[in-house]
Design a protein that fits this description.
This protein has helices at about 10-40, 50-70, 75-95, 100-110, 120-130, 150-165, 170, 255-270, 290-295, and strands at about 170-180, 205-215, 220-225, 230, 245-250, 275-280, 300-305. By secondary structure, it is an alpha/beta fold. InterPro entries: RNaseH_sf, Tc1-like_DDE_dom.
Length: about 325
């Protein structure tokens, strides 16, 4: 064998040993498989794979049988069922879009057709792939934003600005304020599969108000105010004594006037040719002392119509 295949004296022993090692491993594996087969208890019940195949076959047979009853082929019957499911789901969600998959479709179909079993995961996949619907977080929108009355006020305001030849880009500064809590946190977080996301937060965090003003060139100035605590007056406890517990005092017209003064001083120092301060119609912005003070400084207040924050560029800043 050595001369016929030109194997040297060192290669042959290695090949033989490798073959023997393989034979030994194969024999051990065969013995283990035989032991498992003998140790397995005899049962008349079919294996799980056989049961699945039988159920799948029966499932398709039932589809074919149902299709023949109405004069349809199996594929056409399946397509019709999917189409019907999509129509039912879309109709339900059109009336009540906040329903979950289980509430909207699975439970409804189970009640409509009592002899069928619907798997939730299959229904979710059908909703995403066939109906192209996904369950999203709701973004609340003010109910009066798109009312006819609001739209009319918005149209009248824009018409007035046009009639006064107000140049938003070159004559207006845009102001607004926003409040937030120091204990705010994001709503989503990465976590291991199967484990909930939990964070420790303070229930009585500090509230802060941020004032800002921008123009076409960028930020004019900003101002931060922390909500102060003042003593309660006139409120009595169940025992009849006056409560000394502090209460939170939010942003007032005086606070906003303080910021307005800061904005006007910055504009005058930079020789910016702005005439109008664009604001929303919040009550603290419409105080008489603010309008009088701004007028004395040579500026005018320009209030936006209600429910129209998108007309103020600082809302997107």
């Amino acid at each position: 064998m050595n001369d016929e295949y030109n194997f040297d004296s060192e290669t042959v022993p290695v090949m033989i040993q490798s073959y023997m090692d393989w034979e030994e491993t194969a024999a051990v594996n065969a013995a283990q498989k035989e032991a498992k087969r003998k140790a397995k208890p005899h049962s008349k019940e079919p294996s799980l794979d056989v049961v699945k195949k039988e159920r799948r076959s029966l499932h398709y047979q039932e589809r074919s049988k149902a299709g023949r009853k109405v004069g349809l082929s199996k594929s056409t019957a399946i397509r019709k069922v999917k189409q019907m499911t999509s129509e039912i789901a879309e109709k339900l969600l059109a009336n009540e879009p906040t329903l979950t998959v289980v509430e909207a479709v699975t439970d409804h179909l189970s009640k409509e057709f009592r002899d069928i079993q619907i798997i939730r995961r299959s229904m979710e996949n059908h909703m995403k792939k066939k109906c192209r619907l996904t369950y999203k977080r709701i973004n609340p929108r003010y109910y009066g934003r798109n009312k006819d009355e609001t739209v009319a006020k918005r149209r009248d305001a824009v018409a007035y600005w046009v009639s006064q030849n107000i140049d938003f880009m070159n004559e207006c500064a845009f102001l607004d304020e926003a409040g937030f809590n120091r204990s705010m946190h994001r709503s989503y977080e990465w976590s291991e599969a199967g484990t909930p996301c939990k964070i420790d937060v303070q229930t009585k965090g500090v509230n802060v108000s941020i004032f800002g003003a921008i123009c076409k060139s960028g930020l004019i100035t900003s101002f931060r105010k922390q909500v102060v605590l003042t003593a309660r007056s006139g409120k009595r406890t169940p025992t009849g004594e006056k409560s000394q517990a502090p209460k939170r005092k939010g942003t007032t017209s005086s606070n906003f006037l303080e910021y307005i003064e800061q904005v006007l001083t910055t504009l005058d120092a930079a020789n910016m040719s702005y005439k109008y301060l664009v604001l929303d119609n919040a009550s603290i912005h419409k105080a008489a002392l603010i309008e009088d003070w701004v007028g004395r400084r040579g500026y005018k207040l320009l209030f936006l119509p209600p429910y129209s924050p998108f007309l103020n560029p600082i809302e997107e800043f």
